[in-house]
Amino acid sequence: MENWKRSAKAFFAAFTPPTFWLVAFFIIPLSLIWLYSFSTKTGVTDITLDWNLQQYARALEPLYLGIFWKSIVMAAATTAICLVVAFPVAIAIVFSKPTMRMWLLLLVILPFWTNLLIRTYALIAVLRTNGFINNGLEWIVVNADWLLSFVGLGDNRIVGPFEPLALLYNNTAVVFGLVYVSLPFMVLPLYAALDRLDRSYLEASLDLGAGHIRTFFSIVVPLALPGIASGIVITFIPAMGSYLTPDLLGGTDSQMIANVIASQFKQANNWPFGAALSFLLMYATFFALAIRAVLMRKEGRGDVR
Amino acid sequence: MSLFKRNPDPMGPLDYSRRLSLRITVAVTLFFLYAPIIGLIAFSFNDSRRNVVWRGFTTDYYVKLFNNDALMLAFANSLTIAVFTTIFSTVLGALTAYVLWRYRFPGKAIYEGGMALPIVIPEICMGVAMMVFFARIGWPSGMMWPFNLSAITIAHIAFSFPFAAIVIRARLESFNPELAECARDLGASEFQVFRDVVVPHMKPGLIAGALLAFTLSLDDFVITFFTSGPDTVTFPVKIYSMVRFSVTPEVNAASTVLILLTLVVTAFALRMQNRNNMLGSAAH
Protein backbone atom coordinates (compact mmCIF):
# COMPACT_ATOMS: atom_id res chain seq x y z
CA MET A 1 0.00 0.00 0.00
CA GLU A 2 1.26 3.44 -0.79
CA ASN A 3 0.70 6.83 0.74
CA TRP A 4 -2.07 8.76 -1.04
CA LYS A 5 0.23 11.80 -1.39
CA ARG A 6 2.49 9.95 -3.81
CA SER A 7 -0.16 10.22 -6.52
CA ALA A 8 -2.68 12.66 -5.09
CA LYS A 9 -4.43 13.30 -8.41
CA ALA A 10 -5.13 9.65 -9.11
CA PHE A 11 -6.15 9.17 -5.49
CA PHE A 12 -8.75 11.90 -5.64
CA ALA A 13 -10.00 10.80 -9.05
CA ALA A 14 -10.82 7.38 -7.60
CA PHE A 15 -11.76 8.57 -4.11
CA THR A 16 -14.23 11.33 -4.96
CA PRO A 17 -17.10 9.59 -6.81
CA PRO A 18 -17.86 6.80 -4.30
CA THR A 19 -17.32 9.15 -1.36
CA PHE A 20 -19.69 11.68 -2.88
CA TRP A 21 -22.34 9.00 -3.37
CA LEU A 22 -21.96 7.64 0.14
CA VAL A 23 -22.11 11.08 1.74
CA ALA A 24 -24.87 12.59 -0.43
CA PHE A 25 -27.19 9.58 -0.59
CA PHE A 26 -26.47 7.75 2.61
CA ILE A 27 -24.78 9.83 5.31
CA ILE A 28 -26.90 12.93 4.69
CA PRO A 29 -30.24 11.03 4.70
CA LEU A 30 -29.23 9.29 7.93
CA SER A 31 -28.12 12.60 9.47
CA LEU A 32 -31.45 14.07 8.50
CA ILE A 33 -33.26 11.31 10.38
CA TRP A 34 -30.88 11.82 13.27
CA LEU A 35 -31.77 15.52 13.43
CA TYR A 36 -35.47 14.66 13.19
CA SER A 37 -35.17 12.44 16.23
CA PHE A 38 -34.38 15.56 18.29
CA SER A 39 -37.22 17.57 16.76
CA THR A 40 -40.84 18.24 17.59
CA LYS A 41 -43.81 17.87 15.32
CA THR A 42 -45.50 21.26 15.28
CA GLY A 43 -48.07 20.80 12.55
CA VAL A 44 -49.31 18.30 10.01
CA THR A 45 -46.14 18.63 7.97
CA ASP A 46 -44.09 21.06 10.08
CA ILE A 47 -41.21 19.74 12.10
CA THR A 48 -39.07 22.06 14.23
CA LEU A 49 -35.59 21.16 15.31
CA ASP A 50 -35.36 22.16 18.97
CA TRP A 51 -32.89 19.59 20.30
CA ASN A 52 -35.21 18.00 22.80
CA LEU A 53 -35.23 14.41 23.94
CA GLN A 54 -38.98 13.94 24.19
CA GLN A 55 -39.07 11.49 21.26
CA TYR A 56 -36.56 9.27 23.02
CA ALA A 57 -38.46 9.70 26.27
CA ARG A 58 -41.61 8.57 24.49
CA ALA A 59 -39.77 5.56 23.10
CA LEU A 60 -39.15 4.50 26.69
CA GLU A 61 -42.88 4.34 27.45
CA PRO A 62 -44.03 0.83 28.44
CA LEU A 63 -45.84 0.29 25.12
CA TYR A 64 -42.74 0.87 23.00
CA LEU A 65 -40.35 -0.75 25.47
CA GLY A 66 -42.67 -3.74 25.24
CA ILE A 67 -42.36 -3.79 21.46
CA PHE A 68 -38.57 -3.50 21.70
CA TRP A 69 -38.55 -6.33 24.20
CA LYS A 70 -40.81 -8.39 21.95
CA SER A 71 -38.48 -7.83 18.98
CA ILE A 72 -35.53 -8.93 21.09
CA VAL A 73 -37.35 -12.03 22.35
CA MET A 74 -38.48 -13.02 18.84
CA ALA A 75 -35.02 -12.48 17.41
CA ALA A 76 -33.46 -14.41 20.31
CA ALA A 77 -35.89 -17.31 19.83
CA THR A 78 -35.11 -17.29 16.10
CA THR A 79 -31.37 -17.28 16.79
CA ALA A 80 -31.63 -20.11 19.32
CA ILE A 81 -33.68 -22.31 16.98
CA CYS A 82 -31.31 -21.54 14.10
CA LEU A 83 -28.31 -22.45 16.26
CA VAL A 84 -29.79 -25.80 17.27
CA VAL A 85 -30.79 -26.65 13.70
CA ALA A 86 -27.69 -25.27 11.99
CA PHE A 87 -25.09 -27.00 14.17
CA PRO A 88 -25.78 -30.57 13.05
CA VAL A 89 -26.14 -29.34 9.48
CA ALA A 90 -22.79 -27.53 9.63
CA ILE A 91 -21.12 -30.61 11.16
CA ALA A 92 -22.56 -32.85 8.45
CA ILE A 93 -21.34 -30.45 5.74
CA VAL A 94 -17.83 -30.10 7.18
CA PHE A 95 -17.31 -33.83 7.52
CA SER A 96 -18.60 -34.80 4.10
CA LYS A 97 -16.54 -35.36 0.95
CA PRO A 98 -15.28 -32.20 -0.82
CA THR A 99 -17.61 -32.41 -3.85
CA MET A 100 -20.61 -33.22 -1.68
CA ARG A 101 -19.59 -30.38 0.60
CA MET A 102 -19.71 -27.81 -2.19
CA TRP A 103 -23.14 -29.04 -3.24
CA LEU A 104 -24.54 -28.95 0.27
CA LEU A 105 -23.12 -25.47 0.84
CA LEU A 106 -24.64 -24.31 -2.42
CA LEU A 107 -28.00 -25.81 -1.45
CA VAL A 108 -27.91 -23.98 1.87
CA ILE A 109 -26.91 -20.64 0.29
CA LEU A 110 -29.28 -20.80 -2.67
CA PRO A 111 -32.49 -19.78 -0.83
CA PHE A 112 -30.53 -16.72 0.27
CA TRP A 113 -30.64 -15.52 -3.30
CA THR A 114 -34.35 -16.05 -3.64
CA ASN A 115 -36.36 -12.95 -2.96
CA LEU A 116 -37.24 -12.53 0.72
CA LEU A 117 -40.77 -11.49 -0.16
CA ILE A 118 -41.29 -14.59 -2.27
CA ARG A 119 -39.97 -16.88 0.43
CA THR A 120 -42.33 -15.27 2.94
CA TYR A 121 -45.21 -15.59 0.51
CA ALA A 122 -44.35 -19.27 0.03
CA LEU A 123 -44.72 -19.73 3.79
CA ILE A 124 -48.19 -18.16 3.71
CA ALA A 125 -49.27 -20.88 1.30
CA VAL A 126 -47.88 -23.49 3.69
CA LEU A 127 -49.35 -22.14 6.91
CA ARG A 128 -52.71 -20.60 6.04
CA THR A 129 -56.07 -22.18 6.97
CA ASN A 130 -56.29 -23.83 3.58
CA GLY A 131 -52.54 -24.31 3.35
CA PHE A 132 -50.40 -27.38 2.81
CA ILE A 133 -50.04 -28.27 6.51
CA ASN A 134 -53.71 -27.93 7.35
CA ASN A 135 -54.76 -29.79 4.20
CA GLY A 136 -52.31 -32.57 4.99
CA LEU A 137 -53.62 -32.85 8.53
CA GLU A 138 -57.21 -32.85 7.29
CA TRP A 139 -56.39 -35.66 4.88
CA ILE A 140 -54.89 -37.68 7.74
CA VAL A 141 -57.87 -37.07 10.03
CA VAL A 142 -60.46 -37.90 7.36
CA ASN A 143 -58.69 -41.10 6.35
CA ALA A 144 -58.13 -42.14 9.94
CA ASP A 145 -61.83 -41.72 10.53
CA TRP A 146 -62.60 -43.76 7.42
CA LEU A 147 -60.29 -46.56 8.61
CA LEU A 148 -61.83 -46.48 12.07
CA SER A 149 -65.31 -46.86 10.56
CA PHE A 150 -64.39 -50.47 9.71
CA VAL A 151 -64.18 -51.28 13.40
CA GLY A 152 -67.32 -49.32 14.17
CA LEU A 153 -65.58 -46.28 15.56
CA GLY A 154 -66.15 -43.99 12.58
CA ASP A 155 -68.34 -40.89 12.30
CA ASN A 156 -65.81 -38.82 14.26
CA ARG A 157 -66.26 -40.84 17.43
CA ILE A 158 -62.51 -40.97 18.15
CA VAL A 159 -60.90 -38.50 15.80
CA GLY A 160 -63.30 -35.59 15.83
CA PRO A 161 -64.16 -33.48 12.80
CA PHE A 162 -61.07 -31.65 11.58
CA GLU A 163 -60.55 -28.14 12.89
CA PRO A 164 -57.91 -26.24 10.91
CA LEU A 165 -55.08 -25.06 13.11
CA ALA A 166 -54.48 -21.30 13.33
CA LEU A 167 -50.89 -21.41 12.09
CA LEU A 168 -50.75 -18.02 10.44
CA TYR A 169 -51.00 -14.47 11.80
CA ASN A 170 -49.49 -15.10 15.22
CA ASN A 171 -46.11 -14.88 16.92
CA THR A 172 -45.25 -18.51 16.24
CA ALA A 173 -45.70 -17.90 12.52
CA VAL A 174 -43.35 -14.91 12.72
CA VAL A 175 -40.63 -16.93 14.48
CA PHE A 176 -41.15 -19.78 12.00
CA GLY A 177 -40.76 -17.32 9.12
CA LEU A 178 -37.69 -15.70 10.67
CA VAL A 179 -36.03 -19.11 11.16
CA TYR A 180 -36.88 -19.94 7.57
CA VAL A 181 -35.20 -16.83 6.17
CA SER A 182 -32.23 -16.65 8.56
CA LEU A 183 -31.05 -20.26 8.70
CA PRO A 184 -28.30 -19.74 6.06
CA PHE A 185 -26.93 -16.83 8.14
CA MET A 186 -26.21 -19.31 10.90
CA VAL A 187 -24.97 -22.28 8.86
CA LEU A 188 -22.27 -20.33 7.00
CA PRO A 189 -20.25 -18.93 9.98
CA LEU A 190 -20.59 -22.25 11.82
CA TYR A 191 -19.34 -24.04 8.73
CA ALA A 192 -16.40 -21.64 8.44
CA ALA A 193 -15.49 -22.12 12.13
CA LEU A 194 -15.79 -25.92 12.04
CA ASP A 195 -13.83 -26.10 8.83
CA ARG A 196 -10.82 -24.51 10.55
CA LEU A 197 -11.05 -26.90 13.47
CA ASP A 198 -8.03 -29.16 13.88
CA ARG A 199 -9.46 -32.64 13.67
CA SER A 200 -6.66 -34.21 15.68
CA TYR A 201 -8.21 -32.66 18.81
CA LEU A 202 -11.42 -34.54 18.11
CA GLU A 203 -9.54 -37.77 17.47
CA ALA A 204 -7.54 -37.30 20.67
CA SER A 205 -10.71 -36.71 22.65
CA LEU A 206 -12.42 -39.78 21.19
CA ASP A 207 -9.29 -41.92 21.65
CA LEU A 208 -9.05 -40.91 25.28
CA GLY A 209 -12.49 -42.25 25.89
CA ALA A 210 -14.81 -39.24 25.69
CA GLY A 211 -18.08 -39.89 23.91
CA HIS A 212 -19.30 -37.91 20.91
CA ILE A 213 -21.56 -35.74 23.05
CA ARG A 214 -18.81 -34.93 25.54
CA THR A 215 -16.35 -34.26 22.70
CA PHE A 216 -18.89 -31.92 21.18
CA PHE A 217 -19.42 -29.87 24.32
CA SER A 218 -15.83 -29.82 25.62
CA ILE A 219 -13.86 -29.65 22.37
CA VAL A 220 -15.97 -28.57 19.40
CA VAL A 221 -18.02 -25.84 21.08
CA PRO A 222 -15.09 -24.06 22.83
CA LEU A 223 -12.95 -24.16 19.69
CA ALA A 224 -15.76 -22.99 17.43
CA LEU A 225 -16.83 -20.25 19.83
CA PRO A 226 -15.84 -17.29 17.61
CA GLY A 227 -17.85 -18.79 14.75
CA ILE A 228 -20.79 -19.45 17.05
CA ALA A 229 -20.69 -15.88 18.36
CA SER A 230 -20.45 -14.55 14.83
CA GLY A 231 -23.38 -16.68 13.70
CA ILE A 232 -25.48 -15.57 16.66
CA VAL A 233 -24.83 -11.89 15.98
CA ILE A 234 -25.39 -11.98 12.22
CA THR A 235 -28.58 -13.99 12.66
CA PHE A 236 -29.84 -11.81 15.48
CA ILE A 237 -29.33 -8.41 13.82
CA PRO A 238 -31.44 -8.87 10.68
CA ALA A 239 -34.03 -10.85 12.63
CA MET A 240 -34.49 -8.03 15.11
CA GLY A 241 -34.84 -5.39 12.40
CA SER A 242 -37.03 -7.47 10.12
CA TYR A 243 -40.03 -5.75 8.63
CA LEU A 244 -41.52 -8.05 6.03
CA THR A 245 -41.88 -11.25 8.05
CA PRO A 246 -43.92 -9.82 10.95
CA ASP A 247 -45.84 -7.68 8.46
CA LEU A 248 -46.97 -10.62 6.32
CA LEU A 249 -47.03 -13.53 8.78
CA GLY A 250 -47.80 -11.77 12.04
CA GLY A 251 -51.12 -10.94 13.64
CA THR A 252 -52.23 -7.71 15.26
CA ASP A 253 -50.08 -8.32 18.33
CA SER A 254 -46.92 -9.49 16.58
CA GLN A 255 -45.67 -6.08 15.50
CA MET A 256 -41.93 -5.77 15.76
CA ILE A 257 -39.94 -2.57 16.05
CA ALA A 258 -39.49 -2.15 12.29
CA ASN A 259 -43.27 -2.28 11.77
CA VAL A 260 -43.75 0.46 14.35
CA ILE A 261 -41.07 2.57 12.64
CA ALA A 262 -42.79 2.06 9.28
CA SER A 263 -46.20 3.01 10.63
CA GLN A 264 -44.75 6.15 12.26
CA PHE A 265 -43.44 7.22 8.86
CA LYS A 266 -46.52 6.19 6.90
CA GLN A 267 -49.93 5.97 8.61
CA ALA A 268 -49.20 7.76 11.91
CA ASN A 269 -47.17 10.43 10.08
CA ASN A 270 -45.02 11.19 13.13
CA TRP A 271 -41.57 11.41 11.57
CA PRO A 272 -39.62 12.62 14.65
CA PHE A 273 -40.82 9.70 16.75
CA GLY A 274 -40.18 7.21 13.94
CA ALA A 275 -36.71 8.72 13.57
CA ALA A 276 -35.97 8.25 17.27
CA LEU A 277 -37.11 4.61 17.07
CA SER A 278 -34.93 3.98 13.98
CA PHE A 279 -31.89 5.35 15.75
CA LEU A 280 -32.56 3.22 18.82
CA LEU A 281 -32.74 0.18 16.50
CA MET A 282 -29.50 1.27 14.85
CA TYR A 283 -27.73 1.71 18.19
CA ALA A 284 -28.86 -1.78 19.17
CA THR A 285 -27.40 -3.07 15.89
CA PHE A 286 -24.09 -1.31 16.49
CA PHE A 287 -23.98 -2.69 20.01
CA ALA A 288 -24.40 -6.24 18.69
CA LEU A 289 -21.72 -5.63 16.05
CA ALA A 290 -19.36 -4.26 18.70
CA ILE A 291 -19.83 -7.41 20.79
CA ARG A 292 -18.98 -9.48 17.74
CA ALA A 293 -15.90 -7.39 16.98
CA VAL A 294 -14.65 -7.76 20.57
CA LEU A 295 -15.20 -11.52 20.53
CA MET A 296 -13.45 -11.87 17.19
CA ARG A 297 -10.49 -9.80 18.33
CA LYS A 298 -10.17 -11.75 21.56
CA GLU A 299 -9.74 -14.91 19.57
CA GLY A 300 -7.26 -13.16 17.30
CA ARG A 301 -8.80 -14.65 14.19
CA GLY A 302 -9.88 -13.28 10.85
CA ASP A 303 -13.32 -12.07 9.99
CA VAL A 304 -15.91 -14.74 9.37
CA ARG A 305 -18.66 -13.76 7.03
CA MET B 1 -26.50 -37.57 -4.33
CA SER B 2 -25.17 -40.26 -2.05
CA LEU B 3 -27.22 -39.07 0.88
CA PHE B 4 -28.70 -42.45 1.76
CA LYS B 5 -26.46 -44.77 -0.24
CA ARG B 6 -24.76 -47.60 1.60
CA ASN B 7 -21.01 -47.22 1.74
CA PRO B 8 -19.00 -50.47 1.99
CA ASP B 9 -16.14 -48.89 3.98
CA PRO B 10 -16.48 -49.13 7.75
CA MET B 11 -17.49 -45.87 9.34
CA GLY B 12 -14.68 -43.94 11.03
CA PRO B 13 -15.22 -42.09 14.29
CA LEU B 14 -15.20 -38.72 12.53
CA ASP B 15 -17.44 -39.74 9.64
CA TYR B 16 -20.23 -37.61 11.05
CA SER B 17 -21.65 -37.03 7.61
CA ARG B 18 -22.34 -40.75 7.32
CA ARG B 19 -24.34 -40.96 10.51
CA LEU B 20 -28.01 -41.55 9.88
CA SER B 21 -29.16 -39.02 12.49
CA LEU B 22 -27.14 -36.23 10.88
CA ARG B 23 -28.23 -37.22 7.40
CA ILE B 24 -31.82 -37.06 8.46
CA THR B 25 -31.23 -33.63 10.04
CA VAL B 26 -29.69 -32.35 6.81
CA ALA B 27 -32.47 -33.86 4.71
CA VAL B 28 -35.18 -32.38 6.93
CA THR B 29 -33.48 -28.97 6.92
CA LEU B 30 -33.17 -28.95 3.15
CA PHE B 31 -36.81 -30.06 2.89
CA PHE B 32 -37.76 -27.19 5.20
CA LEU B 33 -35.79 -24.75 3.05
CA TYR B 34 -37.00 -25.95 -0.33
CA ALA B 35 -40.49 -27.43 0.08
CA PRO B 36 -42.28 -24.06 0.35
CA ILE B 37 -40.48 -22.67 -2.70
CA ILE B 38 -41.03 -25.81 -4.76
CA GLY B 39 -44.67 -25.86 -3.68
CA LEU B 40 -45.00 -22.25 -4.79
CA ILE B 41 -43.49 -22.99 -8.20
CA ALA B 42 -45.60 -26.14 -8.66
CA PHE B 43 -48.84 -24.37 -7.83
CA SER B 44 -48.17 -21.67 -10.40
CA PHE B 45 -49.06 -24.40 -12.91
CA ASN B 46 -52.19 -25.47 -11.03
CA ASP B 47 -55.45 -25.23 -12.90
CA SER B 48 -57.49 -23.89 -10.01
CA ARG B 49 -58.26 -20.39 -8.85
CA ARG B 50 -58.45 -21.28 -5.19
CA ASN B 51 -54.91 -22.61 -5.29
CA VAL B 52 -55.56 -25.29 -2.67
CA VAL B 53 -55.60 -28.70 -4.33
CA TRP B 54 -53.96 -29.84 -7.51
CA ARG B 55 -56.49 -29.79 -10.38
CA GLY B 56 -54.28 -30.22 -13.41
CA PHE B 57 -51.46 -28.64 -15.33
CA THR B 58 -51.92 -25.28 -17.00
CA THR B 59 -49.79 -22.36 -18.11
CA ASP B 60 -52.80 -20.02 -18.16
CA TYR B 61 -51.48 -17.95 -15.30
CA TYR B 62 -48.30 -17.20 -17.18
CA VAL B 63 -50.34 -16.04 -20.14
CA LYS B 64 -52.42 -13.88 -17.79
CA LEU B 65 -49.23 -12.58 -16.28
CA PHE B 66 -47.88 -11.40 -19.61
CA ASN B 67 -51.21 -9.74 -20.40
CA ASN B 68 -51.29 -7.92 -17.08
CA ASP B 69 -50.10 -4.43 -18.03
CA ALA B 70 -49.56 -3.18 -14.47
CA LEU B 71 -47.42 -6.18 -13.64
CA MET B 72 -45.44 -5.91 -16.86
CA LEU B 73 -44.80 -2.22 -16.22
CA ALA B 74 -43.59 -3.09 -12.71
CA PHE B 75 -41.33 -5.71 -14.24
CA ALA B 76 -39.94 -3.21 -16.76
CA ASN B 77 -39.40 -0.71 -13.93
CA SER B 78 -37.51 -3.28 -11.88
CA LEU B 79 -35.27 -4.26 -14.78
CA THR B 80 -34.56 -0.62 -15.67
CA ILE B 81 -33.64 0.20 -12.07
CA ALA B 82 -31.51 -2.94 -11.82
CA VAL B 83 -29.59 -2.13 -15.02
CA PHE B 84 -28.75 1.43 -13.96
CA THR B 85 -27.92 0.27 -10.43
CA THR B 86 -25.60 -2.37 -11.85
CA ILE B 87 -23.69 0.09 -14.03
CA PHE B 88 -23.23 2.72 -11.32
CA SER B 89 -22.55 0.23 -8.52
CA THR B 90 -19.89 -1.57 -10.51
CA VAL B 91 -18.05 1.65 -11.34
CA LEU B 92 -18.34 3.08 -7.82
CA GLY B 93 -17.53 -0.29 -6.26
CA ALA B 94 -14.43 -0.69 -8.44
CA LEU B 95 -13.19 2.78 -7.48
CA THR B 96 -13.83 2.12 -3.79
CA ALA B 97 -12.05 -1.22 -3.96
CA TYR B 98 -9.12 0.34 -5.81
CA VAL B 99 -8.74 3.18 -3.29
CA LEU B 100 -8.94 0.85 -0.31
CA TRP B 101 -6.56 -1.64 -1.87
CA ARG B 102 -3.95 0.79 -3.10
CA TYR B 103 -3.73 3.70 -0.69
CA ARG B 104 -2.94 4.46 2.88
CA PHE B 105 -4.64 7.66 4.01
CA PRO B 106 -5.62 9.27 7.31
CA GLY B 107 -8.98 8.10 8.63
CA LYS B 108 -8.97 5.00 6.48
CA ALA B 109 -10.46 2.79 9.21
CA ILE B 110 -13.36 5.21 9.62
CA TYR B 111 -13.78 5.40 5.85
CA GLU B 112 -13.97 1.62 5.62
CA GLY B 113 -16.47 1.59 8.46
CA GLY B 114 -18.57 4.18 6.64
CA MET B 115 -18.52 2.07 3.49
CA ALA B 116 -19.71 -0.94 5.49
CA LEU B 117 -22.60 1.01 7.03
CA PRO B 118 -25.10 0.50 4.19
CA ILE B 119 -24.46 -3.24 4.51
CA VAL B 120 -24.97 -3.51 8.25
CA ILE B 121 -27.73 -1.08 9.19
CA PRO B 122 -31.29 -2.44 9.26
CA GLU B 123 -33.04 -2.03 5.91
CA ILE B 124 -35.97 -0.27 7.50
CA CYS B 125 -33.70 2.53 8.80
CA MET B 126 -32.22 3.10 5.38
CA GLY B 127 -35.69 2.93 3.81
CA VAL B 128 -37.19 5.62 6.00
CA ALA B 129 -34.04 7.76 5.73
CA MET B 130 -34.30 7.68 1.94
CA MET B 131 -37.99 8.45 2.05
CA VAL B 132 -37.44 11.48 4.29
CA PHE B 133 -34.42 12.62 2.29
CA PHE B 134 -36.21 12.67 -1.06
CA ALA B 135 -39.30 14.27 0.44
CA ARG B 136 -37.23 16.91 2.21
CA ILE B 137 -35.04 18.01 -0.68
CA GLY B 138 -38.12 18.07 -2.89
CA TRP B 139 -36.91 15.52 -5.43
CA PRO B 140 -39.21 16.05 -8.42
CA SER B 141 -41.88 13.36 -8.73
CA GLY B 142 -44.09 12.71 -11.70
CA MET B 143 -41.29 13.00 -14.22
CA MET B 144 -41.54 11.01 -17.43
CA TRP B 145 -40.38 7.41 -17.54
CA PRO B 146 -37.61 6.38 -16.82
CA PHE B 147 -36.64 9.52 -14.89
CA ASN B 148 -39.41 8.92 -12.34
CA LEU B 149 -37.37 5.91 -11.22
CA SER B 150 -34.35 8.05 -10.35
CA ALA B 151 -35.01 8.24 -6.59
CA ILE B 152 -35.30 4.45 -6.27
CA THR B 153 -32.24 3.95 -8.45
CA ILE B 154 -30.16 6.35 -6.36
CA ALA B 155 -31.16 4.53 -3.17
CA HIS B 156 -30.38 1.14 -4.75
CA ILE B 157 -26.93 2.31 -5.84
CA ALA B 158 -26.25 3.59 -2.31
CA PHE B 159 -26.76 0.15 -0.76
CA SER B 160 -25.42 -1.96 -3.65
CA PHE B 161 -22.04 -0.44 -4.41
CA PRO B 162 -20.45 -1.27 -1.02
CA PHE B 163 -21.33 -4.93 -1.67
CA ALA B 164 -19.78 -4.72 -5.14
CA ALA B 165 -16.71 -3.08 -3.58
CA ILE B 166 -16.19 -6.05 -1.25
CA VAL B 167 -16.34 -8.56 -4.10
CA ILE B 168 -14.04 -6.51 -6.34
CA ARG B 169 -11.57 -5.90 -3.53
CA ALA B 170 -11.34 -9.63 -2.86
CA ARG B 171 -10.32 -10.04 -6.48
CA LEU B 172 -7.73 -7.25 -6.22
CA GLU B 173 -5.96 -9.11 -3.39
CA SER B 174 -4.49 -11.41 -6.02
CA PHE B 175 -3.16 -8.52 -8.12
CA ASN B 176 0.59 -8.04 -8.16
CA PRO B 177 1.28 -4.29 -7.61
CA GLU B 178 4.62 -4.69 -9.36
CA LEU B 179 2.76 -5.03 -12.66
CA ALA B 180 1.31 -1.56 -12.16
CA GLU B 181 4.73 -0.25 -11.09
CA CYS B 182 6.18 -1.73 -14.26
CA ALA B 183 3.62 -0.03 -16.47
CA ARG B 184 4.27 3.27 -14.72
CA ASP B 185 8.04 2.91 -15.23
CA LEU B 186 7.41 2.29 -18.90
CA GLY B 187 5.62 5.61 -19.09
CA ALA B 188 1.93 4.77 -18.67
CA SER B 189 -0.19 7.44 -17.04
CA GLU B 190 -2.23 6.63 -13.91
CA PHE B 191 -5.37 6.34 -16.01
CA GLN B 192 -3.68 4.04 -18.52
CA VAL B 193 -2.41 1.83 -15.71
CA PHE B 194 -5.90 1.61 -14.27
CA ARG B 195 -7.56 0.93 -17.63
CA ASP B 196 -5.01 -1.40 -19.20
CA VAL B 197 -3.46 -3.21 -16.21
CA VAL B 198 -5.74 -3.09 -13.18
CA VAL B 199 -9.17 -3.37 -14.82
CA PRO B 200 -8.31 -6.45 -16.93
CA HIS B 201 -7.22 -8.21 -13.75
CA MET B 202 -10.35 -7.04 -11.92
CA LYS B 203 -12.64 -8.34 -14.65
CA PRO B 204 -14.02 -11.49 -12.94
CA GLY B 205 -14.52 -9.41 -9.81
CA LEU B 206 -16.26 -6.71 -11.82
CA ILE B 207 -18.63 -9.24 -13.36
CA ALA B 208 -19.35 -10.88 -9.99
CA GLY B 209 -19.87 -7.46 -8.41
CA ALA B 210 -22.16 -6.38 -11.23
CA LEU B 211 -24.29 -9.51 -10.95
CA LEU B 212 -24.47 -9.09 -7.18
CA ALA B 213 -25.64 -5.49 -7.59
CA PHE B 214 -28.19 -6.63 -10.18
CA THR B 215 -29.74 -9.27 -7.90
CA LEU B 216 -29.65 -6.97 -4.86
CA SER B 217 -31.50 -4.30 -6.79
CA LEU B 218 -33.97 -6.72 -8.37
CA ASP B 219 -34.75 -8.35 -5.02
CA ASP B 220 -34.99 -5.32 -2.81
CA PHE B 221 -38.37 -4.72 -1.29
CA VAL B 222 -38.07 -2.73 1.94
CA ILE B 223 -36.00 0.22 0.72
CA THR B 224 -37.94 0.40 -2.56
CA PHE B 225 -41.24 0.26 -0.70
CA PHE B 226 -40.36 3.47 1.12
CA THR B 227 -38.95 5.35 -1.87
CA SER B 228 -41.52 4.33 -4.48
CA GLY B 229 -44.62 6.33 -5.28
CA PRO B 230 -47.93 5.20 -6.78
CA ASP B 231 -46.59 5.46 -10.34
CA THR B 232 -43.17 3.95 -9.65
CA VAL B 233 -44.14 0.43 -8.61
CA THR B 234 -41.43 -2.22 -8.91
CA PHE B 235 -41.95 -5.94 -9.32
CA PRO B 236 -41.47 -6.89 -5.63
CA VAL B 237 -43.66 -3.98 -4.51
CA LYS B 238 -46.35 -5.09 -6.94
CA ILE B 239 -46.11 -8.68 -5.71
CA TYR B 240 -46.38 -7.36 -2.17
CA SER B 241 -49.63 -5.59 -2.89
CA MET B 242 -50.95 -8.73 -4.62
CA VAL B 243 -49.92 -10.89 -1.65
CA ARG B 244 -51.70 -8.56 0.76
CA PHE B 245 -54.79 -8.88 -1.38
CA SER B 246 -54.94 -12.65 -1.83
CA VAL B 247 -53.04 -15.84 -2.54
CA THR B 248 -53.61 -16.50 -6.22
CA PRO B 249 -51.82 -18.51 -8.90
CA GLU B 250 -50.89 -15.22 -10.64
CA VAL B 251 -48.73 -14.29 -7.68
CA ASN B 252 -47.15 -17.75 -7.84
CA ALA B 253 -46.46 -17.32 -11.54
CA ALA B 254 -44.98 -13.85 -11.03
CA SER B 255 -42.82 -15.14 -8.17
CA THR B 256 -41.64 -18.06 -10.29
CA VAL B 257 -40.50 -15.69 -13.02
CA LEU B 258 -38.52 -13.64 -10.50
CA ILE B 259 -37.00 -16.77 -8.88
CA LEU B 260 -35.94 -18.05 -12.29
CA LEU B 261 -34.36 -14.73 -13.22
CA THR B 262 -32.41 -14.52 -9.94
CA LEU B 263 -31.34 -18.16 -10.24
CA VAL B 264 -29.87 -17.61 -13.68
CA VAL B 265 -28.04 -14.47 -12.56
CA THR B 266 -26.84 -16.18 -9.38
CA ALA B 267 -25.56 -19.27 -11.17
CA PHE B 268 -23.57 -16.96 -13.39
CA ALA B 269 -22.30 -14.95 -10.40
CA LEU B 270 -21.25 -18.09 -8.51
CA ARG B 271 -19.24 -19.26 -11.50
CA MET B 272 -17.53 -15.89 -11.62
CA GLN B 273 -16.94 -15.91 -7.89
CA ASN B 274 -15.40 -19.35 -8.08
CA ARG B 275 -13.01 -18.05 -10.65
CA ASN B 276 -12.54 -15.18 -8.23
CA ASN B 277 -11.36 -17.71 -5.61
CA MET B 278 -13.96 -16.53 -3.13
CA LEU B 279 -15.50 -19.91 -2.45
CA GLY B 280 -12.23 -21.75 -3.01
CA SER B 281 -11.32 -23.56 -6.18
CA ALA B 282 -12.66 -26.96 -5.06
CA ALA B 283 -15.99 -26.50 -6.78
CA HIS B 284 -15.67 -29.30 -9.29
Quick structural overview:
Chain A is mostly helical.
What does this structure look like?
The complex is a heterodimer of chains A (305) and B (284). Chain A has a domain at 56-128 and 167-299: Orthogonal Bundle (MetI-like fold). Helix content of chain A is 71%, strand content 3%. Chain A contains 13 helices and three strands, in the order E-H-E-E-H-H-H-H-H-H-H-H-H-H-H-H. The radius of gyration of chain A is 25 Å and the shape is globular. Chain A starts with a strand and ends in a 6-residue tail after the last helix. The relative contact order of chain A is 0.12. Chain B has 284 residues and is mostly helical. Chain B folds into two domains: 16-59, no CATH class; 62-275, MetI-like (MetI-like fold), CATH 1.10.3720.10. Chain B has helices at residues 20-43, 60-67, 69-102, 108-120, 123-136, 150-172, 177-185, 190-219, 222-227, 235-245, 249-275, and one strand at residues 103-104. Chains A and B meet through strand 1, helix 1, helix 3, helix 4 and helix 5 of A and helix 1, helix 3, strand 1, helix 4 and helix 5 of B. Strand 1 of chain A pairs parallel with strand 1 of chain B.
Order of helices and strands of chain A: EHEEHHHHHHHHHHHH
Reading the helices and strands of chain B in chain order gives HHHEHHHHHHHH
Coarse structural class of chain A: mainly alpha
Anisotropy-based shape of chain B: globular
Poorly predicted runs of 5 or more residues of chain B: 278-284
Please state how the strands of the largest beta sheet of chain A are arranged side by side. 2-3
Give start-end ranges of low-pLDDT stretches of chain A: none
Measure the end-to-end span of chain A. Answer: 24 Å
The name of the CATH superfamily of the domain at 56-128 and 167-299 in chain A reads MetI-like
Structural class of chain B: mainly alpha
Largest sheet of chain A, in brief, is: 2 strands, antiparallel
Number of strands of chain A: 3
Task: Please identify, by name, the CATH architecture of the largest domain in chain B.
Answer: Orthogonal Bundle
For this structure, what is the CATH homologous superfamily of the largest domain in chain B?
A: MetI-like
| Helix fraction bin of chain A | over 70%
